[in-house]
Structures are given as C-alpha cells and as structure tokens.
Amino acid sequence: MLMDDMGWGDLGINGDPARETPNLDAMAREGMLFTDFYTANPLCSPSRASLLTGRLPIRNGFYTDNIHARNSYTPQEIVGGISDWEILLPELLAENGYRNKIVGKWHLGHQKQYLPLRHGFHEFFGSTNCHFGPYDNKSRPNIAFFRDDHMIGRYFENIKIDKNQQISDLSQSYIKEAINFITTQSDPFFLYWTPDSLHAPTFRSVPYIGSSSRSSSYGDALRELDAGIGKILDTIKQNQTLANNTFVFFTSDNGAALVSTTDAGSNGPLLCGKQTTFEGGVREPAIGWWPSRIPHSTVSRQSATIMDLFRTIFSITDIPMPIDREYDSYDLSPVLFANKRIDTNIYYYRGNQLMAVRNGDYKSHFWTFTNPLEQFKTGINFCPANFIKSITTHALTNYTQSPKLFHMIRDPGERYPIPENSIEYKSVIHKYINLYNKHISNTIPGKPLLNWCDKAVMHWSPPGCEALNMCLPVPQSKPYRCDWPH
Amino acid sequence: MLMDDMGWGDLGINGDPARETPNLDAMAREGMLFTDFYTANPLCSPSRASLLTGRLPIRNGFYTDNIHARNSYTPQEIVGGISDWEILLPELLAENGYRNKIVGKWHLGHQKQYLPLRHGFHEFFGSTNCHFGPYDNKSRPNIAFFRDDHMIGRYFENIKIDKNQQISDLSQSYIKEAINFITTQSDPFFLYWTPDSLHAPTFRSVPYIGSSSRSSSYGDALRELDAGIGKILDTIKQNQTLANNTFVFFTSDNGAALVSTTDAGSNGPLLCGKQTTFEGGVREPAIGWWPSRIPHSTVSRQSATIMDLFRTIFSITDIPMPIDREYDSYDLSPVLFANKRIDTNIYYYRGNQLMAVRNGDYKSHFWTFTNPLEQFKTGINFCPANFIKSITTHALTNYTQSPKLFHMIRDPGERYPIPENSIEYKSVIHKYINLYNKHISNTIPGKPLLNWCDKAVMHWSPPGCEALNMCLPVPQSKPYRCDWPH
Ligand SMILES: [Ca+2]
Ligand SMILES: [Ca+2]
Description:
2 copies of one chain form a homodimer.
Chain A: E1 2-3, H1 22-29, E2 32-38, H2 44-53, H3 57-60, H4 89-95, E3 99-105, E4 123-127, E5 144-147, E6 150-154, H5 170-183, E7 189-194, H6 217-237, H7 240-245, E8 248-252, H8 279-282, E9 283-289, E10 298-300, E11 304-305, H9 308-316, H10 333-338, E12 345-350, E13 353-359, E14 362-365, E15 367-368, H11 373-376, E16 397-398, E17 404-407, H12 423-442, E18 452-453, H13 465-468, E19 480-481
Helix pairs in contact in A: 1-6, 5-6
The site of one calcium ion has 6 residues of chain B, from loops.
C-alpha cells in the first residue's frame, strides 16, 4: 500500500493532533511501526521505480542530468519510462507463480512499452500519470485511465473528478478493486495498491466530505483511504488462509508536499517537504503488518527504505534474486520478525547528485538545496515556516569539504548542525565522508531516462482509444530536453 | 504531575520519533490523552500560579506591567510572590481534610510569606526556585532547598548538581519522596509532583546517563522522569484503595524551551517554543489517569487548560468553590469521565497583554511577538528553524484591526494564516474579535506582582539557615524595577 505524498506526520500514531487515521493506528498496533523509514527519492516516479526495482534511481535511470541535482518525474510529455533491462518485483514474482495487480498510479512511463502489463503485472486498474487536468484535448490531452493494457477513459471525462469541489469516487473504486482482487485469488498474489487522492489537487468521495477534523479535502481524503485500508485488512482477516499468509506493508512515495499548503499533509516535526532531501521530503509513515509473524504493537527505530521491501519480499518467498546487478536493498526479515536491528546506509539523492548519507544515528549533508531563489520568490516554497541558515539553501550548496552533520534522534528536525569543532563532529564525520566517497566511486549510474520530452508522446491515442472512439490526432514529434525547474 | 519545560512533542504517543516515554505512553493507554491541552502562560511562575489558583496570571497578579507584553517570572531577586488573598487549590483541599504535599519546584515566591506551607501545603520537599547556579555566595547566594518551612541546604552545596556533566540524584529523591508520601497517607491527599530536571541546564542521575536514544542529558532526564512516573503509578496500582480513588493528571508548565537547542525538548509540529504565545509555547503534553473512572485509550481533542484542573478537582471532590472571584476554569468531568466535548475559550497572554484567543477549531492572534530583534541578533531564538512572515515577528505587532486567523486542526503549526478576503475568514473572525473585546472589557487585572526586584530578598538567609550555620549577610535593600528582556 503506497500512498501518494502522504507525510510522516499524518499518522495519528506519529502524533498528528487531529488523529485522522484510526485504521492505520490500529494496523500499527497489530504490527510494526517504523519511525525511520525512507523512500528512495523525494518525488513520485523515481520513488516508485526504486520500490519495484530495489535499486536507487541513479541505477535504474529514473533521474535527469539535464541539470545538476534536479528533480524529475514522468509528466505526459516524458519520452522515457521503465527500462526493459530492469527486473521488477512483479516480474520475479510472476515467474514464481504469483498473480500481480497494480491498482492506482503507475508513473513509470505511459508509452505502450512502459505499461504495467509489459513489466510483470497481470492486471492494471488505474492511470499511468497523476490526475492533473482537465485539459482541452487540443494543446494537451486529458490523461488516460487504464484497465489492464488499454485505456477505458480519461480523467475529467469518463473518470469524474470535480476539481472545484475536489470530489471523485476514484478512491472508492480503488478500494473495491483491491477487495475484489484479494477475495478472488486462488494463487499467491501481489497487490500494489497505490491510490493518488492525497496528491494535490486532492479529492474525496461525497460521503467523506467534512469527515475530517481538519475540515479539508486532504483530511477527508486521508479519512477515506484510512477507512479503505481498514476494509482491506478486514477482508484479509476474515479469511484464515489469507490472514496467515499475507504480508502487508504500508508507506508513502515521498513526504508531504508542503508546497501545496493546506491541500497537503503534515511532516510532523521533520524539516521541509517533498522535493527536498531533508527528512520531510523522504522520511515516510510506514507499517509492517502480518499478525501471525510480526510482533504486535512494536515500534522499530530501524533505518530502512522502500527499496528494502524488494529483498525482504524475496527473502520471505524464498525466491532467489538476480546476481547480475547491484541492489540497494536490505533484507528486513530480522527486523520484521524478530525486532532486530541491522546496519543500513541511507543515500539521499536529488537527480544525479548524492546529497546526504545516513547511517545509524547520524545524517550528513554533503549538498543542500531547496529550490532556486527566483522560483522561491514567486511563492513556490518547499519549506514553509522553515528557515535554517546554511541548510535550507536556495542555491545548490556544496559542503563536501565540510559536511553538515545532524544527530537524527536528538534532532530529527535537522535544526542544529553539530559544530564542526566539537568532539562529536570530529569523531563521527569521517565515517560519513567515507560512505559518501565510497558510494559515489562504487556506483555506476544507469542511463538517465528522464531527459527527453516530446508533446507527441502525450495521451493523444493510448492503446484502446479506437474502441472508445477517443483517439486524438498526434502532433509531429519534436523531442526536446525537459525543463526541470527545481 | 507537572513537568518543567517538557514539550508537546516529547511524548512518544505524540509522535516523538525517539519514543523516550514508554511509561507515559502506557499511562495514556490506561487513560485519556489530551491533544489540545494548554498551560496558562508560556513561562514557569505564571503557569504554576494559575494551576493552583484556577485563574489567569492577569487576575492572580503573576505578570508585570513594567513593559508592555513582556514575560516575567520569579528569579531570586523578585520581591513579589503569591498573594495571601488568592485561594490556592491545596488551601481548599486542606479545609476539607486533605493532606497536601509539594515535591519539586514551587516558583511562586521565596520570601517567608510566600512559602508553600503558608499557602495550603502541609509538606514541601524541593526548592522555591530553579536550579540555577552555582553562585559565589557573595554577589549572589546559591538557591536554598527546603524541607517543609525551612531550608535544608543549597543547590551545588548540599544538593549536588554536577553542572558540567549534567548529573544529579535530585529526580530520584523526588521519586522516592512521592512514593513515600503516597504509601503513608491515611487521609485523602493531594500530591503536587513537579520535578525540574527537564529545565535547562537539565540533569539526570548516573544510572540514566546514556539511557536515551537522543544521547543527550535532556533525553536521559526524560527517561528518568518517565521511569519514575511508571514507579509512582505502579505504587498506586498496587493498592486497591489507592487505585480506585486516585486521580492523576500529567502535564507540563510550558512548551519546550527551544532557545536551549539540544538541551531542550520537542514541540513536535507546533510553532516556536517557551516564551511565545504560539502553540509551541503553550500547548502541552497532557494525560488524565484514573483507570476505574476515565475510559482507557481515549484521545480527547478537547481544548482545555491547566486552570481547568482547579474546577475539575473541586467537582470531583464535591467541594464548593469560592463565589467571590472570577475563575478561568472549566469543569472537565464530562470530558474525563464521559469523553464529551464542552465549549471552552483559551486566552493566550504575554505579561499584561492578551495576545490570542482560541475557541473550537480556530485561533486568532491579535498581537504577535517572539523577542526583540536586538536580542534575537545575539543568538536568543525562541523559534529556531521557524520563520513565518508577519507571524513570528521580532516587534510586538498589533493586529487588532485585522487579526490573524488559523485553523488549529488543519494547520496546528500555525503556518498558513487564513486569507482575510476568504469566506472562511469573514464568516469566523467576528466571533474571535468579540471574544477578545469581551474578555478584555470584563477582566479586571490583579495588581502586578512581578514588577519589583531587590538583591536584598535573595537567598541570603532563608528560614532554617541558622540551624545549618548557612546564613549569609543580607545586603541593604534597594528595590528596583525588574528588567524583563522579552
Ligand atoms: Ca508522490
Ligand atoms: Ca517551565
């Protein structure tokens, strides 16, 4: 279960004062809450590519080098998408008898060759892109919505979203689709459930309007997904075989998009939000659930990432992993099943640049960046209310000669850089400099897949448009370097 | 149980990533957690005066008007202290057969006439002031430490504190004193347990050094108090009569003192810290515990204050309250025992100035202030990492003509003032303007007690010094207006 732009602080059990997540809080009581769980990147597409490949974006290609250290993703102009060479989680599972379904947002490319059914999934119900729009279908087509390998409509046309009132039934469809899938499988299955109603502009179905204490569309959408997760878990619990054999992991693809102010979630005490390599950009709400195997009501302080789910799932299923490539994935089985702690390195990237490294209690920033000053001045703010001198910088700032060091337990908000002349700094920093240098010299970047854009690849005529009579004329191809503004 | 400078975000159950409070978290599971509980003032002395009188500092006199809207407290130069006219919680309880004891920091004046045994307490073990020092006993005496009505030593002399290593056994003494009192009472009792080891400079006893994940003195001190609270509750639980008849309330006197950086607690997602009328200054961790009467594992979003404990206790004990004075105290019994919600107004003061008002989901700031710019430039920062334009102002800023409005559930961090031209603002603001005006016109300020200072009143020769041969020469009295810098 992968949320879209949900923040660490949105979980009631992570201290959200409004306590909008009773079902997730119950899930945590029945399982293991992770306080220090990370995504692989502070943005949707690279994070999702990393979840499914077990590899950092710098390896699987979900980054750009058009500009140094810039975030990139897969808007409908993007030419690139998930590489055929990558071996995705569902591909390996499919080879071993699993039935795989994705419900929700794919975001690994929308051209035919990138669609989920070409990459290990047997079923798909959702979209390849965010629910942006509506568009005029002339300068820009509305985003296609898919059933398996073909479109079944477009957002704002067949898939209704009332953008002004922030209303849609889509999350309800995703909840039903999940429950229906779970209750009809005879083989082992992998469900990748990834609704995107928490991504601005957020939406909720009519019965949830006003359901949140926050009295906001975001709050209502959170209530709706929380209730849906409760239903999905109940479905599993009601069947003894399912209950005994189903591992559920809940997390989010990146931190709360504070740039969207009140149409966004909360990162609690963490610094900044989506788009940044501060904790608010990459530390996620995370719960492991498997009542018969994971100790109940446990809180793990283990530093881990979304990529670890890759190796963990193959460890649990006893499926051998490929040995022809590098992984950025630890087996979390000892953590999940015995509440042990393992030594992990967390690498924080922005585009093609390794920005920071965490190991154990410390995190060191080698580069800092929020967004360019000119952009910030127009009101685009990834760190509303946050200002930390020399840290929340509006220039990409190189600290490789004197890295910034933070104690992540004492100071999870990254407020107080440890003074460089302190004993603590001097006794610790070399480890992080070594980790940084070693990672860079040992990491062979994959080919960047998010450099090129082309209006011709947009959702003019996706597979299936003919049957619906919804094909639109495709303009002439004019590839250009995508502009990544931050 | 009143902590000193503990922050809202320090409770594990309020989302502290380090989860340093397992016993308090368990207390919350056995009782009711309040998410929106306030102190009466962002500073020690006024907050404590309000707890024990059920009245705002503006009424009980724990404020200054030397300068407009400035914080004040009771350092050892202070001439003032709690007024004889005030009727304190323990006074009313004593009249009704209760045995009352204060363990820890008094902070309502240290001259003879202000001591706890003159104001309703039968026993006192602690100090009248903070554990500041050590001093030279020439220009400034070390702070006296009391047993009942007489000093039994001084901090840094008889009451050992290793300031460099931040070590003291004092919290252990306070824990033992509490348990001993609880287990030896035959009459009903009131224990006011208020250790001050979380007030910077924090300290902990040797066994707790390194006990916290934070690896800090503050973290260790928090672990030590949490463990002590566990022991105290166990003591109550082990005796069926005590268990059935003891109401325990846990909170803190003001928000985390972020000015002390890593020697301070956490306010979680809340704005700024101690000294301010932003949420980080005044919203507190709070737990009500009475397993036989308070529903277990409940979270109450009720807005309430420390002053409400006054009326609540007299409601529970069926003791009539004085009718000759105004109270700022609501009876929380329906909240505690039936999880109901009542309509409350929260008034946020700084010195003699009403700064903000909360009712229901909204809070409106009529004045904003952090600290003077000149002081801020010397490094004194009540809002580290926080900067919100027009809100975290370094000048006392008058917004009475266009009050700032925040939705406290959607935006507990007070990041996003609701636009003045929005329907939401227009439909809501008048209520708050009325509350502000009505409160000011209906409130008759008490005589300000914290205006005058005098070196002659310092701890030169407290009661009991003769027996210890610890009297110091008292300098000539030279009263002067206290200087309150922020
Ligand atoms: Ca996202
Ligand atoms: Ca205090």
